[in-house]
Every structure is written in C-alpha cells, then in structure tokens.
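User: I'm new to structure prediction. If I give you an amino acid sequence, what do you actually give back? Let's try with this one:
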Amino acid sequence: MDSTPDASWFSRIGSFFARPWLGVLSRSLAAIVGGYALAATCSMFLAAALPMARSQAVLTGMLVAIVLCACAALWAFATRTALRAWIGIALPTLVFWAGTHLLRSGA
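Assistant: Good question. You get back a string of structure tokens that encode the predicted 3D arrangement of the chain. For your 107 residues, that looks like this:
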C-alpha cells in the first residue's frame, strides 16, 4: 500500500482553485475591499499630514482618496495575477496606516 496521501483529493482541490471565476472573485474583492481600505487610510494620512486648516486637509484627503479608490480598482484588474493585485493594494495601505499612526503619536 502506498503511504502518500490520496492523489485524487489533491487533484480535486487543485482543480477547484484553478477555476477562472475564483480569480475574478479575488480581484473583485481586492478592488472593493482593498480599494476602500486604501482610500480610507489615504484620507486619514492626508488629513493628519497636510499643513493647512483641518477642514481643508480632511476635504483634500477625501478627494484624493476617491481618485485612489478608482485607481485601486483599475490596478486589481490590470495586473497579471490576483496575488499581485492584493499585494499592490495592501502595501500602500499599510504604508499610509503606519504613516498616520506615526504622525498621530507625535502630535
């Protein structure tokens, strides 16, 4: 008897994740959820970082965030793989989040 795991089980899981609709679903979630997170963190960062009146800094941050959310959706479907879409949206989100927390802790 062979001691390797059941090959048919692995092939069934592999064939499930090879379906094209999962890539589209992943990219759609990256565009929607990741784009929203990127826009929110960008808005927070710009509201804290811009050297102007608080109300104008918040408004400017929100306007830039709207454009950035649209760019994130374009990026999610323009990249070669869904993993690149997630990484390309998650890294700037983390940078904006870290920058916001650094600015807030210094204030």
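You can read the tokens as a compact description of the fold. Here is one thing that stands out. The mean pLDDT is 88.
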